[in-house]
Design brief:
alpha+beta, Alpha-Beta Plaits, Translation Initiation Factor IF3, SIMPL/DUF541, IRAK1BP1, cytoplasm, 2 domains, 5 helices, 9 strands, four-stranded antiparallel beta sheet, five-stranded antiparallel beta sheet, nucleus, 241 residues
Length: 241
């Protein structure tokens, strides 16, 4: 999915002669304004990853099936804890059933990681130590609500900063000095997800780790309209600075 092109900039400046000076006790606004619109676009990679691990055992004795799974569950939890994963980020669900003349114990462990390097270390260790007795699903990357809110704030602030800089450059072009903001209005915001090459869409399991992160990256754009006061001719000393 191609990124949308930013909207064209709009600048309206009113550079009329300033009115006669008002008495010191009642200062009057100059009435001169510069109208500017500007935009910004930012992206944020996912800040969380969820990995699911499945394991099971089928034995003639119920206790043997339970203990086989319990030993591996304890090893998984211990390996994650030793690498800084808090207990509250691990969820275990178990299912015990009778299959023909045997007992079947199945379990699933969901681990949430905020450090993707630790995630890879844990998964690599479990594959090495437990082998085919555990099935590890590809990581699911996502954003927490706090990360999305941060992206929204940052893109809005960036758009306002770009708009102010544009207004300042327009004023300097005419030898004027930019004054205080009289109006700042958010006109449009957009949010969209990442994209991957079309030939990978039919085989999501074949995506590399970086492709999965790219696919989960969030994008946001913001366009604002602002009105600034024009103070008058720019001080020559300030221009030299």
């Amino acid at each position: 999915m191609a990124l949308p092109s930013p909207p064209p900039a709009r600048v309206f400046a009113e550079l009329l002669p300033a009115p006669a000076a008002a008495p010191a006790s009642a200062p009057a606004p100059s009435g001169r304004e510069v109208h500017v619109s500007g935009s910004a676009e930012l992206s944020a990679g996912p800040d969380r990853a969820r990995v699911s691990l499945r394991l099971g055992s089928r034995k003639e004795a119920a206790g043997a099936a339970r203990s086989s799974v319990a030993r591996r569950l304890e090893y998984i939890a211990q390996s994650a804890r030793q690498r800084g994963v808090p207990e509250e980020n691990m969820t275990v669900t178990e299912d015990f059933s009778r299959v023909e003349n045997t007992y079947q114990m199945e379990a699933e462990v969901c681990i949430i990681f905020s450090d993707f390097g630790k995630m890879q270390n844990v998964c690599n260790l479990l594959i090495e130590k437990l082998g085919t007795s555990v099935t590890i699903s590809p990581p699911h990357f996502y954003h927490t609500p706090e990360a999305v809110d941060t992206l929204r704030r940052q893109v809005c602030v960036a758009a306002v900063g770009n708009t102010r800089q544009k207004a300042q450059e327009v004023c300097r072009l005419f030898g004027q000095s930019l004054g205080k903001p009289l109006l700042i209005r958010e006109e449009e915001t957009k949010e969209w997800g990442g994209h991957i090459d079309s030939h990978l869409l039919n085989s999501p399991d074949s995506l590399t780790l970086q492709e999965r992160i790219q696919n989960a990256t969030a994008y946001a754009s913001c366009r604002v309209f602002a009105v600034f006061e024009i103070k008058g001719r720019e001080n020559r000393r300030n221009k030299l600075l």
